Amino acid sequence: MSTSTKPKVRVMSGNEACAEGALAAGIRFFGGYPITPSSEIAEVLCYRLPAIGGRFIQMEDEIGAMGSIIGASLAGAKSMTATSGPGFSLKQENIGYACMTEVPCVIVNVMRGGPSTGLPTMAAQGDVMQAKWGTHGDHPIITLTPNSVPETYELTVRAFNLSEKYRVPVILLLDEILGHTEEKFVIPESVEIVDRIKPSDPPETYLPYKHTESGVPPMASFGEGYRYHVTGLAHDETGFPTNNPAEIGKLAERLRRKLDDARDDIVDVQRVECDDAEVLVFAYGCTARSANQAVLEARSRGLKAGLLRPRTMWPFPDREIHALAQQVKQIIVPELADGQIAHEVEWAAKGACPVKGFGRIDGQPIRPVQILELIEEASR
Amino acid sequence: MAKKLVNYDSYLRLDKFPLIWCPGCGDGIVLKAILRAVDRMEIDKNDVCMVSGIGCSSRTPGYVDFNTLHTTHGRALAFATGVKMVRPDLHVVLVTGDGDATAIGGNHFIHAARRNIDITVLLYNNWIYGMTGGQASPATPSGDRASTAPFGSIEPNFDIAGLAAAAGASFVARETVAKPASMDKLIEKAMKNKGFSLVELFTPCPTTYGRRNKMANPVDMVEDLKRRSVTVAKAERLGSDLPEDAIVTGVIVEDDTRPEYTDRYAKLIQQLSGAVK
Ligand SMILES: Cc1ncc(C[n+]2csc(CCOP(=O)(O)OP(=O)(O)O)c2C)c(N)n1
Ligand code: SF4
After folding, report:
1. Inside any domain, residue A200
2. Which domain does A87 fall in, by range?
3. Which residues, including other chains, have CB under 8 Å from residue B44's CB and lie 6 or more apart?
4. In a domain, A113, yes or no
């Protein structure tokens, strides 16, 4: 399915593009709580949603906002919430609930400096590990990391599509720079839209947590005649709690398998000048913009630099990194965090080449020249 | 009209029995009262969504054949708000405990009441955290013992119905499991109210509360509830002579003048559709 609109050239911020992307993807419910630097997303959607028959609510806190989007999604609406660091921390328990109960929804985190209240108006990338492991217990998760205003639009649509396709919460990680940077961009005429699979079984034989081949069970909405039970407790195919180790194992295995099997559909990287690269930069989000400039500048100086940029952060592009690690002398990992992703890259490189982290957590962006210097050093 | 017998089985997921509740627990009495109310209202089971938090009481939805949603501790009202906003036509009934609703969930409780969103909250008040073994809750009467108040609670306890009324609920009532017939009538009234409704239902937890407070026998606990119950009308007559341990039962707030939240939202949609491109 696709929606069609007239192509429009607009100048907008990443946050606005996120809201527009959500609308293009078919959002019908937003539950939020104000927090800098994410509030513009709510401010666009509270205005736009009622006009198209959708619903917006400002909840009493982020825990409530997260709960509300899960309830709304179970009632059949494509749902999203948006927040930043402290609010992202508060949402974690209910994000785990959405993982366990397989409720599609999108959680936007416009990252700011932390921990705690930290740096409300300054960019950071310190929540990447929280996006993966923020909620307790083992759980696979999808996280997308755009690096421009147009890409924020594109990946917001993709976040909805992946959440619907695989019945998982999807986290969209923006950062303060991206959220507030304004760029010119052509709103696409149409975008591809994916909707959750509805049951074809009659209610009497419907198994809401069926161990299907793809691992994704068809999903009925509440009030459609399929009276089923949803619980965050470990459950069997019927959705009811179980303490049977075999059933618990089957559930855990299916939750893992449904994303493992879909790995190549979900993992998404951009390669810039990687074919003959001798020095590789691995960067995402706002930092990838500096990295891109540094790589192009290095090339103009005759240095064989390349950029590997994950548009999907989780599942991690470990194979893509490992392949390039065999070819390059060094991988440089600049990030507005203290080595969070550098560690992952090192694990993925499996010793094939050295990995050099370059972290910055003082609220300032990493400048292209800083990355260029590291490329020059590594090329010597 | 002859009184119709309720076929409880037609509402129950009998294959999920036995119930997890202890012998002597009052939660089953509340469950039956809910089913009598739904039956009397002749609501299609497909049109009921029962949402709960975490606790013994919150296990109720697992046993009933509705659309059922067992959420996280304290957050049921947030989930229910999402369901109700997307499907205002569904009867959203919420089952919660005193701890679930007024400790960890206190914020959602007062704000849902303030919005006057059309959700019927059935709060099983057993004065204790039953599921986790009898720790003190915000409803544990001052002086009573709990596993985390071994010398007697030194905290004042909430008047939960009063809290809901002050926050803006348009229907508030109280009853105890000692009067099952009155319970289902109040639940029916609450479900018929278009707005936020709270029915605070006192129910014994002999296992974790009674045992510690010289009332291990469930029958004694129900007798005690009966002894302490005073209707709203009688309480008014008694005035300052109302006994200190009285449980005032019946309808406390009934106000159909307050706008309901999803109604207001529907009006907003109506007003805007076509107006904004
Ligand atoms: C976030 C979180 N904190 C604590 C718990 C543990 N817990 C489970 S039930 C419960 C208390 C339930 O008490 P109440 O709501 O009064 O219900 P009852 O069991 O008495 O019916 C607690 C503290 C939990 N499940 N989740
Ligand atoms: S612990 Fe108390 S509330 Fe829980 S089932 Fe037993 S008697 Fe009921």
Report:
1. no
2. 8-187
3. none
4. yes
Among residues B93, B103, B113, the alpha carbon closest in space to that of B43 is found at: B93
Residue A251 lies in a domain: no
Residues 6+ apart with CB under 8 A from A143: A128, A131, A132, A170, A171, A172, A173, A312, A313, A314
User: By alpha-carbon position, which residue is closest to atom 25 of ligand 1?
Assistant: B73
For B75, the token pair is 């957050």
* Contact partners, residue A97, CB within 8 Å, separation at least 6: A70, A103, A232, B71, B72
CATH number of B19-276: 3.40.50.970
pLDDT by residue (tens digit) across A112-167?
A: 999 999 999 999 999 999 999 999 999 999 999 999 999 999 999 999 999 999 99
- Is residue A263 in a domain? no
Please indicate whether residue B128, judged by its CB atom, sits closer than 6 Å to ligand 1. yes
Q: Is the ipTM of this complex over 0.90?
A: yes
Report the residue of chain A nearest B63, measured CA to CA. Answer: A229
Q: What stretch of H or E contains A32?
A: strand A29-32
- Domain map (residue ranges) of chain B: 19-276
- CATH no. for residue A66? 3.40.50.970
List, for residues B216-239, the tens digit of each pLDDT value: 899 999 999 999 999 999 999 999
Angle at A339 between CA A334 and CA A342, to 5 degrees: 65
What's the pTM value of the predicted model, to 2 decimals?
0.97
B72 contacts chain A (CB < 8 A): yes
